[in-house]
Specification:
Blueprint: E1 2-8, H1 13-24, E2 29-35, E3 40-45, H2 51-57, E4 63-67, H3 70-80, H4 90-93, H5 95-111, H6 118-138, H7 141-148, H8 153-157, H9 160-178, H10 182-205, E5 211-212, E6 221-222, H11 225-244, H12 258-265
Antiparallel strand pairs: 1-3, 1-4, 2-3, 5-6
Helix pairs in contact: 1-7, 5-6, 6-9, 6-11, 7-9, 10-11
Length: about 270
C-alpha cells in the first residue's frame, strides 16, 4: 500500500535525503519518494504502519504534520498534468556521466599520445576520475554525505566517513597521477570502491529509487546499473595493474631506491 505524508522544515536536498533515509530504515517500508517542493513523502509499505512510527523515525528538525488525503493528491496531479515536463529517460539522465567518462578517456589518451603505455593511460584515467568526481562532491559536501549514506555500508554506520570520502578521492587522484606509492593507492582504491559497490548492488537488488552520489548533488543521477559498471571498471583496472606490475619495469623505473635503479639499468636482474 501507498501513503503520502506532509512534512515541514525540508529546505534542501540534504533534508530530502535525510527524510528518505529515515523512512527507509523502518521495517516494512519498500520505497520512499520525497518531493521537496510540495513538502510530501510518498511511502510504499508492505503493511499498514502507524503514523507515530514515522514521526519517531524522523530527525527532530522535521515535523510530520499528517497524511495527505488521496483526493487532494489526485486533484494536484490533475492540475499539474498539463504543466508537468515529459518524463526523462534514464539514458538521458545519465548523459552527463557518459560525457565525463568520454572526456576522461580522451584526456588519458592525450597524456600518453607520444609514448603510449596502456598501464600509464589507465593510471592517468583513474587519477583524473578521482580528481573530477571529488570536485563535484565538494560543491555540496554535506548533501553528498547524506546521499552517500543512503547506500554505502560504511557511511551508513559512520556518518563522518561521507565527509572524508571526497578528500580520500582527491588524495588518491594525486597519488595516481603523480605515481607516488602507486601499489598502495591501487589497493586503497580497490577497498573503497569495493565497499561502495556492495552498497550499490544491494540498492539495485532492492530496486530502491535513490540518487547516485558519485557526482555529488550538483547533477541528479539515478542509481542504475551504470553506477555499478562505473565502480567495477575502476576496480578491474586497479586489480589488473596490481597483479601485473611485478612482471615489467612499470614501477621500478619510477623508484629511486638502489634495487629499483639497478633493475631499471638491467631488467634481467629482478630486485629482491
Amino acid at each position: 500500500m501507498t501513503q503520502t505524508y506532509h512534512i515541514q522544515a525540508m529546505t534542501c536536498n540534504g533534508c530530502k535525503d535525510s527524510v528518505t533515509r529515515a523512512f527507509l530504515s523502518i521495517a516494512g517500508v519498500q520505497d520512499v519518494v520525497v518531493v521537496l517542493e510540495k513538502e510530501t513523502a510518498t511511502v510504499t509499505m508492505d503493511t499498514v504502519i502507524e503514523t507515530s512510527i514515522f514521526k519517531q523515525a524522523l530527525p527532530s528538525k522535521f515535523k510530520l504534520v499528517g497524511r495527505v488525503a488521496v483526493a487532494e493528491i489526485k486533484e494536484k496531479t490533475t492540475l499539474n498534468t498539463k504543466e508537468s515536463e515529459p518524463e526523462v529517460s534514464k539514458l538521458e539522465q545519465l548523459k552527463p556521466l557518459f560525457l565525463i567518462f568520454i572526456s576522461l578517456f580522451l584526456a588519458s589518451l592525450a597524456l600518453n599520445f607520444n609514448d603510449f603505455s596502456f598501464k600509464e593511460a589507465m593510471l592517468d584515467f583513474m587519477g583524473l576520475f578521482f580528481f573530477v568526481f571529488s570536485l563535484f562532491k565538494f560543491f555540496d559536501l554535506s548533501g553528498f554525505a547524506s546521499s552517500f549514506a543512503m547506500y554505502d555500508p560504511v557511511a551508513k554506520r559512520v556518518p563522518v566517513y561521507g565527509m572524508v570520502y571526497p578528500f580520500l578521492e582527491l588524495i588518491l587522484g594525486f597519488m595516481l597521477l603523480s605515481q607516488i606509492q602507486v601499489p598502495i593507492a591501487l589497493f586503497v582504491t580497490t577497498i573503497l570502491l569495493g565497499m561502495t559497490t556492495i552498497g550499490v548492488s544491494i540498492a539495485l537488488l532492492q530496486k530502491k529509487q535513490i540518487t547516485c552520489a558519485c557526482l555529488g548533488t550538483v547533477l541528479k543521477l539515478p542509481m542504475t546499473q551504470a553506477t555499478f559498471i562505473e565502480n567495477s571498471v575502476m576496480i578491474f583496472m586497479a586489480i589488473f595493474i596490481l597483479l601485473t606490475h611485478r612482471s615489467d619495469r612499470f614501477y621500478f623505473d619510477k623508484c629511486k631506491c638502489v634495487c629499483c635503479v639497478s633493475y631499471a639499468r638491467n631488467p634481467r636482474i629482478l630486485p629482491q
